[in-house]
Amino acid sequence: KGNGMIGNIYSMGLALQALEATRKFYAPREWDCAQAFSVVSAHDYQQPMAIAQVLPALVGRSYLDAAGLDCAATKETSPNPELPLSPVLGTHGVPRAPIQVHYSITNELQGKHFHYSTSVTVLSGSTLLKVLQVAAEENPQTFSFQTEQTSWGTYVTSIHGLAASTEDRTYWQFLSAGNALEEG
Questions:
Q1: In whole angstroms, what is the distance from residue 111 CA to residue 165 CA?
Q2: Are 20 and 6 in contact (CB under 8 A)?
Q3: Residue 39 assigned as binding residue
Q4: What pLDDT shows up at residue 77?
Q5: Does pTM surpass 0.90?
Q6: Which residues pair with 24 in a beta bridge?
Q7: Is 53 annotated as a binding residue?
Q8: What three-state secondary structure class fits 43?
Q9: Which domains are present in the chain?
């Protein structure tokens, strides 16, 4: 894509690893390495699998190099596990203010069609999963949902009793102002 994205934010790590590893042997066309790296370095990755795929490319190493790393040399820069984490402070210690999120669920594909909306209050910086949880707590009959743990993190499998289906090729798509979210 013109902005440096290769596929989506989840495929970027593998794409960068592949392009870097093969750039000397296979180059069907020039690619802007710096632009692609700026996309991944600007993104706030939260999923362990995505981090694991993008990290080798960001540090210019492969997993084969891991055996030769001197972890003792980086001990001073490791985070202090004894520092308490506050649920109301952001990543830089800035207080997180409550925000109101307008949340809607719509089904126009299968069974009985529906459209429900609500507004919930969460702390700024909250995840989409937190918005779903608060909506379900406030109105469980309408905003119920089910999840499944995957190596990519929590995956929403059902909303309002309507499950995603690989057989029917249906899934829940999450949008913000009409645009698909890069990361749920």
A1: 13
A2: no
A3: no
A4: 41
A5: no
A6: none
A7: yes
A8: coil
A9: 9-68 (no CATH), 98-180 (2.170.130.30)
